[in-house]
Amino acid sequence: MKLKIGVIFGGRSGEHEISIRSAATVLQQIDKEKYEVIPLAITEAGRWLNPAESLALLPKTVRELLAESIENFPLNAVALLGDTKYKGLTRLDAQNSENQTAPLDVVFPVLHGTFGEDGTIQGLLEMADLPYVGCGVLASACGMDKVVMKTLFRDADLPICKYVWFLRAEWERRGEDVIAQTEQKLGYPCFVKPANLGSSVGVSRADDKETLRAAIELA
């Protein structure tokens, strides 16, 4: 019997579309002779889509590969609950308890950024006692927060670049002081990046005070 793998993608993140492209690659490469692959998308608003709805978001080549594998999965509303009773997808409008669940053996999160790489989905899967691919809750949370990650690298005596960090509230309250501190510690050119977004989202190069201010506002 094939293992059932749920591939989760999309999500409430600025990297929603990037996640869909990544999922298409993963879904194409998984060995269909060994695994039954179930696509599971989350919309930008946070709604879980059933496998058929999820498949519709993917390129035609991927849809053709997976059309048969989702035939036995629910076409009604589904969600993944943090409850060990269900061990997979829960049919939200099932008429009886026998048809309430659609089991999964393992989950492959291909979510990017917020709620996907920050320990959130990992925590949900831990609660549900579902095996999953990738880092655990703590490693995901630390890796997502660039300030925490740099602190850990520094304390482990690993080489890191010079950096400055500050909270949004600090920027809004004393923005000129933040700029002065950045100029003093880093100088120009420097690069600005949000502390809790993945990929290159929100990254800008600053060559002077005006471009630094614009880069911080963007981030």
Keywords:
37% helix, Rossmann fold, 3-stranded antiparallel sheet, 8 helices, Dna Ligase, domain 1, 219 residues, 16% strand, 2 domains, alpha/beta
Question: Could you characterize the architecture of this molecule?
Answer:
- By secondary structure, the chain is an alpha/beta fold.
- It folds into two domains: 3-143, 3-Layer(aba) Sandwich (Rossmann fold), CATH 3.40.50; 146-218, ATP-grasp fold, A domain (Dna Ligase, domain 1, 2-Layer Sandwich), CATH 3.30.1490.20.
- 37% of the residues lie in helices and 16% in strands.
- It contains eight helices and eight strands.
- It has a three-stranded parallel sheet, sandwiched between helices. Strands 3-4-5 form a three-stranded antiparallel sheet, with no helix packed on it.
- A hairpin with a 7-residue loop joins β3 (78-80) and β4 (88-91).
- The chain is elongated.
- The mean pLDDT is 91.
CATH class call of the largest domain: Alpha Beta
Helix/strand/pairing class, anyone? alpha/beta
pLDDT average, as an integer? 91
Q: What topology, given as strand order, has the largest sheet? A: 2-1-6
Number of DSSP strand runs: 8
Distance between the termini: 48 Å
Any guess at the CATH architecture of the largest domain?
A: 3-Layer(aba) Sandwich
Q: Number of helical runs?
A: 8
Helix share of residues? 25-40%
SSE sequence, one letter per element: EHEHHEEEEHHHHEEH
Shape: elongated
The percent range for strand residues is: 15-25%
How big is the Rg? 21 Å
Major β-sheet annotation: 3 strands, parallel
